[in-house]
Amino acid sequence: MNSLTSSNLGYPRIGEKREWKKTLEAFWKGKITEASFEKVMKSYRLQYLNNQIERNLDYIPVGDFSLYDHVLDTAVMFGLVPDRFQYQGGKVPLSTYFAMARGTDNAHACEMTKWFDTNYHYIVPELKGLTPKLVENKPLQAFLEAKTELNVIGKPVILGPFTFLKLSKGFDQSEFADRLNQLASVYIQLLQELKEAGATFVQIDEPSLVTDISEEEMSLFTSVYHFITDQVPDLDIIVQTYFEAVTHYDAVVNLPVKGIGLDFVAGFETNFAAITKHGFPKDKILAAGIIDGRNIWKSNLEEKLTFIKELSTFVDVERLLIQPSSSLLHVPVSLTHETTLDRTLKNALAFSHEKLEEINMLKKAITVPSAEHLRAIQAHTQSFTELTNSNWRKKVERNPLATERAATFNERHKLQKKKWKLPLLPTTTIGSFPQTSEIRQARARWRRNELSNEAYDALIKAEIKKWIEIQEKIGLDVFVHGEFERNDMVEFFGEKLAGFAFSKNGWVQSYGSRCVKPPIIFGNVLFVEPMTVNETLYAQSLTEKPVKGMLTGPVTILNWSFVRDDIPKKEVAFQIAEALLKEVKLLESAGITMIQVDEPALREGLPLKKTQHNEYLTWAVEAFRMSTSQIDHSTQIHTHMCYCDFNDIIDSIRALDADVISIETSRSHAELISAFEHRQYDKGIGLGVYDIHSPRIPKEEEMVTIIQRALTVLPPSLFWVNPDCGLKTRTEQETVAALSNMVQSAKKARTMV
Ligand code: GLN
Ligand code: ZN
């Protein structure tokens, strides 16, 4: 066998030490000029290319780099700038680009939403009243830069017209086909320019092909690609899919393009079954995503090698490209700086650079199957299986846990009402209060052992005390301790549970310059010690009012972590649930019997394909219930979710069987209320009455109106009054003012029911 080709789909933007983020933020703060900003960004871009060249890739992506987001890049290069940004035509200025992403005093930012099922957020293009026009050929610039500066013929990466349109808003679905054709003409120009500049291979990303698109949509897709490739006949286009198996395999592999990119990690079973059943066209290239672009584990290269050999029975090796399953945007850059991780664990990890090295190793083992190359593959696999075989992952028998509370909601409601004697429309908050920089700095010092446990503890307690007094003064009905001891709602619990590890530099881009560092769930998750009992009990000791316990739910902890992949996600969720149940019971026996278990990420875990929703929701709900069922009837379970489209999951929300749910709604109140109206939500519910994302202080009357509107569909006996979400990003002054108005609005509303 020989001449297998290696490729990459996209490289992380943030830099090994988040230098990209720092430069971006320095520029926004006006600390560097536009010229030096452009210069530094160019140096990163070239560095990133060099990092890939060093790893011997045959096809290196260009044009995947971005100053914010690749969907925004695409909109901007087509001049698709909403009117409110007063764009004058021509190349879109950098200031307008960032204004669209971040908003200005005069124009609100474009909406941001999740990129498929990842935690990356893109800027939603707004097409209302706009016609696409190629005002700047960004992939061409990237291509030429790589060619001139590094003598590399890069593989331009372009977001495809179909997916771009699917992700856009501001038009009626009946216009979809016309809009797509309009876009296609612009793509033709873009591709022609690339071809003239000497590009050979071009990767057009069409991840929408893995979603539930209809047959009609698929044939529309096909005809548009006919239109494009007829005009640019001798450019080798790869239509690239990822994150799942394609929905219409036959149609996709028969598209009139040179190559098809399929995901053989996330979409492994379905894609592989399809290729086995239908074969693969003899004249096409298969770009096979075989190294996981979404998770951080090393690959079992022996298995991968076998898989490549299997694939080669359908596609000649000469026509096979091996690559990560998706862009590496979703994993950290390099393991080099991880100096404190356990050796066995570190040996089992692969960030972007290590993944590219894996591809290189596989390529070598196929093209030159020497003993040396094969040994390297074996050694690699062995160092990985050290973790798989370790005690940390020894199979544990989970105890069977109740997933149903012993009393119905109505029975519980009666008992709970008697226990707390809360006023009608009780007021509360979602958990966190403002985190001062003083607290953050103290935590950093404490972590560096520069501050003793006692001193740190005393600081946290002082803050709790202060906010109990504030809550007393404001007159809230149910208090919280304020979450001052938490850096992040998942990391905090991960650090206290067994089975979690934390990298030093494992950052990934979440949106714009914002990065997250997900915890790594590497082994069995187990309860080790009480996590929240001290702070909660301390808070409770200072007041007669009930203090809500505050935990992060199993599904959210799972969805915001990098998760081991040797057992089903559901098993990991159940392990977390079991550990959380222990905490719930500890709180309960210490007298904290109102406990909130937050699940803001419940919806985020929804699979891309609707047919898989049920399965996910079933175990997600089960995990939540495991952590909250084996308790006394009179213990009141609260849960909280951030804004999301609830319509399609409302049955699952009800199935959580929480006594009270608080939901972020202020941005779409009417919509949400109608969702609840139609399904008649019949448990305790707090619809957020003001938006915590804005520094604006909501007026009492506004909130009275919101409460009254909600009460037209929800019974007052079940209704709670609370803000949209936690308050940790607000100032003390804003928080006190807003909550005082909120309490007044509840009092007023009580007199009106
Ligand atoms: N209890 C958390 C807080 O108040 C909830 C945060 C969230 O929903 N994202 O901060
Ligand atoms: Zn929230």
What does this structure look like?
The protein has 753 residues and is of the alpha/beta class. Helices cover 43% and strands 12% of the residues. The protein is built from 26 helices and 21 strands. The chain has an eight-stranded parallel beta sheet. The chain has a six-stranded parallel beta sheet with strand order 15-17-18-19-20-21. Helix 13 packs across helix 14 (371-388) and helix 25 (700-711) packs across helix 26 (732-752). It is globular, with a radius of gyration of 27 Å. The mean pLDDT is 95. Bound molecules: glutamine and zinc ion (ZN). Glutamine (GLN) is lined by residues 430-432, 483, 489, 550, 598, 600, 640, 642, 725-726, 728.
User: Which ions, cofactors or small ligands are bound in this entry?
Assistant: glutamine, zinc ion
Structural class: alpha/beta
Low-confidence stretches: none
Q: From the alpha-carbon coordinates, what is the Rg to the nearest angstrom?
A: 27 Å
In order across it, which strands form the biggest sheet?
1-10-9-8-7-6-5-2
Shape, principal axes of CA atoms: globular
Distance between the termini: 79 Å
What count of helical segments does DSSP give?
Answer: 26
Helix amount? 40-55%
- Compute the number of strand runs: 21
Pathway: Amino-acid biosynthesis; L-methionine biosynthesis via de novo pathway; L-methionine from L-homocysteine (MetE route): step 1/1
GO molecular function, one term: zinc ion binding
Family: Belongs to the vitamin-B12 independent methionine synthase family.
Cofactor: Zn(2+)
